[in-house]
Amino acid sequence: MHHLFCKILSVLLIWNSFAFCQDKNELLHADPSKAEATFLNSLDYPELQVVPRASERLQMDAFRENDNGWFMFWPFHIASGATLMAALISKNKFNPDKENDEVFRKNADFKVNAAVGLSVSWFALTYFISAGQPYTTELNKINQIKGKDKKSLLLRERIAEEGMQKPAELIKMLTYVSTFTNLVAAAGLMDNVNSDYNLYAGIAMLTAFMPMIFKNKYVENYEKQLEYKHKIYAPVVFTDFYRPNLYAHWAPRLVMQWTF
């Protein structure tokens, strides 16, 4: 049995070597201007195998971005809105034990005004990002690539992935900043006001975590695209020698391995 397997393996290796030599000779004798295209067309890439492709997802979500891009940031709006509400309700509602302290009143007013300014800034920042339309901007760039060869297709997909990556990484960072700043602003109102109004500051502290609980669509799209891309796999075939136990003889084997 081992001898038969060795003969089959030898035939396969000889055949593959012959085929490789043929492909190599064809590539060497090809027109130099077409050699690169011939080589690229003989390869395949996860970017071109994944469904949907990055350019297709970018195109689908660009329509949503055009229609209601600002509302894609609704977790940020709820967090900022709760901080704004708590700040406005807390204005001039000083702690009775300290309301006659002029320094305390100035600090309390500063914390309230800072919380209001922070909330308005988050509304303005999310509007600025959505008005920039990251997906639509990148889609216009890749639409300018007109080639139909594999190199052009690969270029389109990689630029599309970059176009999805940039806003996703930006909003990931803003998620942590929003949570931290709204949490600090709401917590700062707790000592300023009458205990009857602490409930509003407590609600604002809880809603500060909304951007972390609910993923932004830009982040979700990019993570989903990477997940689909990682599911593309290719088998790797190689040979080695194997001995199942100490009492058995070494024997060649054909191994097929999937790399994800």
Characterize the structure shown.
The structure is a single chain. The chain has 260 residues and is mainly alpha-helical. It has helices spanning 2-28, 32-41, 46-49, 54-68, 74-90, 102-132, 134-142, 150-188, 198-207, 210-213, 217-230; strands at residues 234-242, 251-259. The protein has a two-stranded antiparallel sheet with strand order 1-2. β1 and β2 form a beta hairpin. α5 runs parallel beside α8 and α8 crosses α11 (217-230). The radius of gyration is 30 Å and the shape is elongated. 25% of the residues are buried. Mean pLDDT is 78; it is low at 1-28.
Task: Indicate the topology.
Layout (H helix, E strand, L loop, with lengths): L1 H27 L3 H10 L4 H4 L4 H15 L5 H17 L11 H31 L1 H9 L7 H39 L9 H10 L2 H4 L3 H14 L3 E9 L8 E9 L1
Antiparallel strand pairs: 1-2
Helix pairs in contact: 4-7, 5-6, 5-8, 5-9, 6-8, 7-8, 8-9, 8-11
**Compute the gyration radius: what is it?**
30 Å
Number of helices: 11
User: Uncertain regions: pLDDT < 50 for 5+ in a row?
Assistant: 1-28
Query: What integer is the average pLDDT?
Result: 78
Q: Percent of residues in helical segments?
A: 55-70%
User: Secondary-structure element order, as H and E?
Assistant: HHHHHHHHHHHEE
Number of strands: 2
**SS strand fraction:** 5-15%
Structural class: mainly alpha
Q: What best-fitting shape do the alpha-carbon axes yield? A: elongated
Distance between the termini: 33 Å
The quaternary structure here is single chain
